[in-house]
Design brief:
Layout (H helix, E strand, L loop, with lengths): L3 E11 L4 E4 L16 E10 L11 E9 L4 E6 L8 E2 L5 E10 L14 E12 L3 H4 L10 H4 L39 H15 L3 H7 L28 H12 L3 H4 L3 H16 L8 E6 L11 E9 L16 E6 L4 E13 L9 E8 L2 H13 L4 H26 L1
Helix pairs in contact: 5-7
Length: about 425
């Protein structure tokens, strides 16, 4: 029997009865109730581990289709840059089914603002792994020094071409392999936070109430520990209309994260979605760590994406790992004897951006975990499939060099 993995209630403003589903290859959609108008819609997003079958009788079926997910994270988008919350449906490069339903709004739909004119239900479930390294993991086209800067036109055969044959079998995973498709408890419960707080207080030799007071919460001994009593007054429920942002803000205040309390609502939404999805991509007890991602494509690596990364680590005695991370297909590529550091590569799965570490230039820090076997198999397959032929690369370098020399000569003649 299909099981519900997670659910999210959202609210979006729809213009011209048109909306899309970011993170998919689907065309735009619209409500069947009218052809062109503006309205607020309550949206319920559900992720299932298999085809859930029909919804209950309160919902009217609208449409059903299939699509391929880019990263496994989707969001409702509207015409004028409106965007709903990010929602994890499962692993990337899977084919999914989605059913859309419609009903009249009920109390509590959306953000419970009372403004919803209709309510939608979108149910997602995985069908099969469709990862193809030729389609989904192609590297950047051929680039030689100066080619991009001078906009040199290369012939089609001089660009990155699909390999004539696959070097290794394409891995095919099952639904049960993926952490994002497991049935698990709510990862952001108040009870879970309270248990961690009790352990922290015991470790410091104080009571939980004393620890809360040290963090700025005005609470007397023996007062019941509730979400309201454990939050500073400025962070209690009701500060934001969006309940997901409101809860995230309160959680950060409980932990004493003042840096989060100065953010605007859009940035709070980004942080709240990122941290929620990062937890949903991990199994219980998973160790996470931060790595720098540099170069092309570093600015936005979607959560759930697995890739090889590189970083400098301290060359510790006995080969001890820096943070018990970067262990999958770990390779030591170079040693710096002056700084006693090693350049290491490994395969990880990206969870979210690291908001506490700021990169520079084209370097961005991400919170990651070591890739699981089925995730690493995709990266290794892509690397083997697209491995460059050294002779062909040298030949393309020579062609680009000749074009670059000719182009520079043309520029110099114009300057005279």
């Amino acid at each position: 029997m299909a099981q519900l993995l997670r659910r999210l209630d959202d609210e979006v403003y729809v213009e011209y009865n048109t909306f899309g589903l970011d993170g998919t290859d689907l065309p735009t959609w619209g409500s069947p109730t009218d052809e062109a108008y503006h309205f607020v819609a309550g949206v319920r997003l559900e992720s299932w581990d298999a085809d859930p079958g029909p919804a209950d009788a309160s919902w009217t079926p609208v449409s059903s289709t299939t699509f391929v997910a880019e990263s496994g994270v989707v969001a409702i988008i509207t015409m004028m840059d409106g965007r709903g919350h990010d929602f994890l449906i499962g692993p990337p490069r899977f084919e999914y089914g989605v059913d859309m339903y419609l009903r009249e709004p009920k109390p509590g739909d959306g953000h419970a603002t009372g403004e919803c004119e209709e309510t939608w239900l979108l149910r997602f479930w995985p069908i099969r792994d469709v990862f193809d390294p030729i389609t989904h993991a192609a590297p950047f086209s051929y680039i030689a020094r100066g080619v991009l800067y001078y906009s040199i036109d290369l012939e089609p055969e001089q660009l990155m071409q699909p390999p004539a044959r696959r070097e290794v079998p394409v891995p095919v995973s099952a639904v049960e392999d993926w952490a994002s498709l497991r049935v698990g408890p709510d990862l952001d419960t108040f009870d879970g936070w309270l248990r961690r707080l009790h352990r922290k207080a015991e470790g410091r030799g104080v009571t939980t109430h004393e620890l809360l007071r040290a963090g700025g919460v005005d609470i007397e001994d023996d007062v019941d520990l509730t979400p309201a009593s454990c939050s500073p007054p400025q962070a209690r429920a009701g500060r934001f209309q969006d309940p997901l942002i409101d809860r995230y803000y309160a959680e950060q205040a409980r932990w004493g994260s003042s840096s989060r309390q100065d953010l605007d609502e859009d940035r709070l939404r980004e942080y709240a979605d990122g941290e929620r999805i990062a937890k949903e991509l991990c199994r219980d007890g998973t160790r996470t760590f931060s790595v720098p991602v540099e170069g092309r494509g570093a600015l936005y690596v979607p959560p759930g994406t697995s890739r090889r990364v590189w970083r400098w680590e301290d060359d510790m005695l006995g080969g001890e790992l820096m943070d018990d991370g970067l262990t999958v297909d770990r390779r030591i590529l170079a040693r710096n004897p002056w700084t006693r550091q090693i350049l290491v590569s490994g395969i990880v799965t990206v969870l979210r951006r690291d908001h506490d570490r700021h990169g520079f230039g084209d370097t961005v820090w991400y919170v990651v975990r070591d890739a699981e076997p089925h995730e690493a198999a995709r990266v290794l397959c892509a690397e083997a499939t697209w491995e460059e032929d050294p002779d062909r690369r040298r030949a393309l370098d020579e062609v680009a060099r000749e074009k670059l020399i000719d182009l520079r000569a043309t520029y110099r003649s114009r300057e005279r």
